[in-house]
User: Which sequence fits this backbone?
């Protein structure tokens, strides 16, 4: 069963027609109601009536996180305050946070896209969803919550932390679905085992990943730990929240709800649109949003789009899982490195744990990169010669992946700090400014 | 304007008729669908058809928190899992937690009662509600959230903590309504002042108090700090969550949504119903709940009911704010003491801060009670003689309130730990088991 077959399986022609009408309407609404768009479009001499085809979106300027920050707090809202019913906000670790505003219809739409996503994961009204994402200004918790309410499944809004209680509830409630960041999932499995509970025994039906980059190998490890398939959930607070794209049962890409979001892939350096299948920066445009329509948002997320037929019969385009960020990729000795590449290399090797940290330094005007990796308990107390062999093997594998020789340190099991939210994978000690 | 005039202002006769019908229906539903009620009623020889008048509720046994605990996790549910859409849970500091289950209609009803409450506080769709209650298994955050969504006001689901960010957002967003526990409100005001921001300058319209006992004097202090009226919100996770009763503009009692909850006041020792106006333990019965109907729940909260006309024109009964708990009252030298009594005494005295802690010990087989109170900065570094006078004055005032002489210690300003949730007022070091 498909949650909204009429929408999710419509033909490309019909979809493009709908998208064009929605794009024209939202660009007009943004231009007329948001001073930011009005000013920018006027300056560039581009106007809503210039959008005659979907390709004409190229005429419009991009919107960046900095643009949104400048509108702090409510400058990007396109409706009067009395029509806004909820606000969320990005973390604001650098500078002012971005505030995201929702009308009642926006919340309904958010519930709809996440309901589609939970449905793709095989969730029905009988399922018990334990949602370990944080609730609050962050959209993580609420997206799944609203989607679950729409589906009518049982949501357990336990939020982040209290790991031992999470495990107890999982067992006592008979949780069928866990929502977590991959690094928290690894931690949960680890703590469960410490408590003498095999995560497999919970009898999970599905796992939802969110809010963090991961690798195929990490998915396999988690799927194996919990004996359940894990699906990728993608979202951005600026555009809506989790649910913009979710993976279907074929587990090889995330269907974007294209009746709500228009995706493009651009070259992050030139801003030019790239053709189907090419890797680049994802740009998203809200097609329905009332409270805060965002046009051509540069997500900084690196992925690619695939329009070929999916075996699930949904026709919405599939995006690859995010393999990096156009901004947080590490440039070392001129080489762009993504933590996911390191991870990919590590997960190919036995005798180590999938916990690692990348430390970048510049001791003598030259970049140095060190990868700390946890040895597994049985190897750590083994012969030194064996340790040296493994270390060399990891260095080879990483070099193979990123084209650069790095220094690898094998550290004691459980010595790398565990995270209850996003894992801190990169510690950049260089002064890059 | 009254949110639901038809319900909130109906005549007592009409209300009693509706309540009886609902009571008959829910007792029947509980008896038929929940093994706990079925067994208990059968044992006592009391059956749904014995409820012929509202007074017949006296024939039914009470339900206690322990009864609910025994049904952990889902034993009290009256519908199959697929009809449950959300679960919450009490904190479970002692023993197993109580799980509370909601159908879609239950969530709608919860939104409705909280919408009535926000309306009583003068909140409209233009208002910006900064909700500092925690989201998660606890119902605190979600009650206000759902009510605000129903009203259509803007909810900022910031949750607990991050006090400096709370203050920044309050100022930047132009928050009109703050929801907090009284002790967190005091802390917020204190931190704002430290940051050079006068809490009065925020321009609040209303404050909602929840989840904690407080005194009239504490309300005055908070209202004065923020220059806004503060309203009491009452709720229990077992029965629903916040919104069961909320204070109207006359600020002298909380209107219970009597079409959803049937209130009684009983003598906590004998279990006998007490007449109007008498102080005793509040007992509540769900009249509408589908997911988990709770019949005659002993709340342990001490209050009284008043059926006289309210100037706001609402006809629903008013309960006094909670002045104690029938279980957590401290018995010292055989005297029952409520922290609220100590607080009341303290707030009558100048030169001290409203931060205090009650420490109960039993050093020589006799109870001793010490009250630690913060001196205000201007007095603390003053003459010792003045300090001794104030100490004696506090001891007199407390004795007047509780009928017992206690030891008072004046401590340094800001030396008593501040709380971001419920304040820890009583430290009982006696072995009472
Ligand atoms: Zn598919
Ligand atoms: Zn009233």
Assistant:
């Amino acid at each position: 069963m498909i949650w909204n077959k009429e929408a999710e399986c419509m033909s490309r022609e019909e979809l493009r027609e709908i998208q064009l009408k929605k794009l024209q309407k939202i660009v007009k609404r943004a231009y007329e109601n948001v001073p930011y768009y009005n000013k920018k479009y006027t300056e560039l001499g581009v106007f809503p009536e210039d959008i005659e085809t979907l390709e004409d979106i190229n005429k419009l300027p991009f919107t960046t996180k900095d643009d949104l920050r400048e509108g702090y707090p409510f400058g990007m809202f396109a409706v009067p305050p009395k029509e806004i019913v909820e606000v969320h906000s990005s973390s604001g670790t650098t500078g002012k946070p971005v505030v995201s505003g929702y009308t009642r219809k926006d919340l309904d739409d958010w519930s709809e896209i996440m309901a589609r996503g939970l449905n793709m994961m095989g969730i029905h009204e009988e399922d018990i969803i334990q949602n370990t994402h944080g609730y609050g200004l962050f959209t993580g918790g609420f997206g799944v919550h609203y989607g679950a309410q729409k589906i009518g499944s049982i949501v357990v809004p336990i939020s982040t932390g209290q790991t031992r209680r999470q495990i107890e509830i999982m067992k006592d409630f008979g949780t069928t679905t866990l929502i977590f960041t991959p690094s928290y999932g690894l931690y949960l499995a680890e703590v469960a085992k410490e408590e003498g509970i095999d995560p497999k025994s919970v009898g999970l039906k599905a796992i939802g990943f969110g809010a963090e980059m991961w690798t195929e190998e990490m998915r396999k490890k988690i799927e194996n730990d919990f004996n359940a398939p894990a699906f990728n959930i993608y979202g951005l607070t600026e555009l809506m929240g989790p649910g913009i794209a979710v993976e279907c049962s074929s587990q090889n890409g995330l269907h974007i709800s294209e009746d709500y979001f228009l995706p493009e892939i651009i070259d992050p350096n030139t801003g030019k649109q790239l053709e189907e299948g090419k890797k680049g920066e994802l740009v998203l445009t809200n097609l329905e949003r009332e409270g805060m329509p965002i046009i051509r948002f540069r997500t900084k997320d690196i992925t690619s789009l695939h329009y070929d037929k999916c075996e699930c019969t949904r026709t919405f385009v599939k995006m690859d899982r995010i393999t990096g960020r156009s901004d947080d990729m590490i440039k070392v000795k001129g080489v762009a490195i993504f933590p996911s590449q390191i991870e990919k290399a590590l997960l190919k090797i036995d005798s180590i744990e999938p916990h690692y940290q990348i430390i970048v330094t510049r001791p003598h005007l030259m970049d140095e990169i060190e990868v700390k990796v946890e040895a597994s308990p049985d190897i750590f107390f083994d012969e030194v010669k064996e340790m040296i062999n493994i270390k060399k093997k990891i260095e080879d594998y990483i070099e193979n992946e990123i084209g650069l020789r790095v220094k690898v340190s094998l550290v004691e099991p459980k010595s790398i700090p565990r995270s209850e939210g996003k894992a801190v994978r990169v510690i950049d000690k260089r002064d890059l400014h």
The longest helix of chain A spans residues 12-33.
